[in-house]
Amino acid sequence: MLEIKNFSKSYGDKKAVDGLSLTIKDGEIYAFIGHNGAGKTTTLKAIAGILPFDEGEIIINGHDIKKEPLVAKKEMAYIPDNPDLYDFLKGIDYINFIADVYGVESDVRKKRIEKYAKLLEIYDDLSDPIGTYSHGMKQKVALIAALVHDPKVILMDEPFVGLDPKASHTLKELMHKMCDEGALIFYSTHVLEVAEKLCDRVAIIKKGKLLKEGKMEDVVGDDSLEEVFLELEGENNVVETH
Ligand code: ATP
Q: 9: CA distance to ligand 1 center in Å?
């Protein structure tokens, strides 16, 4: 379970996220949506333990990210929106490096790397340097590296951007499978049509404040997620939860 309690983050005088509280349960695929600059990446980075924050608590499977960062991070994977990997390494070396950091045994990692790399159709390219990869190929390597330790809390920032249609489809299937096996996924996106079909729950933020959150079908009702989002974007809102 991932619990975000009254989380706030400022950059200088500017409040990027203001008093955000959300709970994401095991098995859920949870969409985090909002306009550019709404505070999604800030929230994801704070959960991942790579951005210090001012107020609130973030608890990952019972472990506070500030008080027990190592234990909390062991359970988690964070896939940033821009896969900034080491260009001089081969894809396989990068994945092995991450697997070493998480202490994944060699026979287990070999099977996982083969499975994910074949599914994402990058297996034959893993011996090439990352510097020669396209954006989508880097994203696939980042994804495999993130999944190689079988994380239970998966954070993704705009995971579908740059992936080809087949890889996007594969990723959606993988997301379902991981959640069926008990993981949870919290991801930011601007692709509302996909989020509407894929996600169990959704949170909508605007200027760092939560506008609406709940089960996808309750939030959407008889409209589409896009219609709900556009309507909320045009309003001065108070929080609604379902
Ligand atoms: P997008 O959809 O464009 O990726 P986002 O919802 O992820 O946006 P954030 O990147 O979290 O938004 O940014 C939230 C706010 O914090 C924005 O107003 C942004 O200008 C500000 N911000 C983000 N990072 C920094 C930083 N390093 N220094 C100062 N301000 C920042």
A: 10
**pLDDT tens readout for residues 132-187:** 999 899 999 999 999 999 999 999 999 999 888 998 999 999 999 999 999 999 99
Ligand 1 contact, 156 CB (< 6 A): no
90 secondary structure, DSSP code: B
Whether residue 42 has its Cβ less than 6 Å from ligand 1: yes
Query: Tokens 């959407």 correspond to what residue?
Result: 220
Does any ligand 1 atom lie closer than 6 A to the CB of residue 33? no
The reported pLDDT for the residue numbered 242 is 67
Give the architecture (CATH level 2) of 2-75+152-241: 3-Layer(aba) Sandwich (3.40)
Q: Are 191 and 32 in contact (CB under 8 A)?
A: no
Residue-wise pLDDT for 76-130, tens only, equals 999 998 888 889 999 999 999 999 999 999 999 999 999 999 999 999 999 999 9
- Residue 237 pLDDT exceeds 80: no
What residue spans define the domains of the chain?
A: 2-75+152-241, 88-150
Please give the angle made by the CA atoms of 220, 221 and 227, to the nearest 5 degrees.
45
Residue 59 corresponds to which tokens in the numbers above? 């608890």
Whether 36 lines ligand 1, by a CB cut-off of 6 Å, is: yes
Structural contact between residues 174 and 180, judged by C-beta atoms closer than 8 angstroms: no
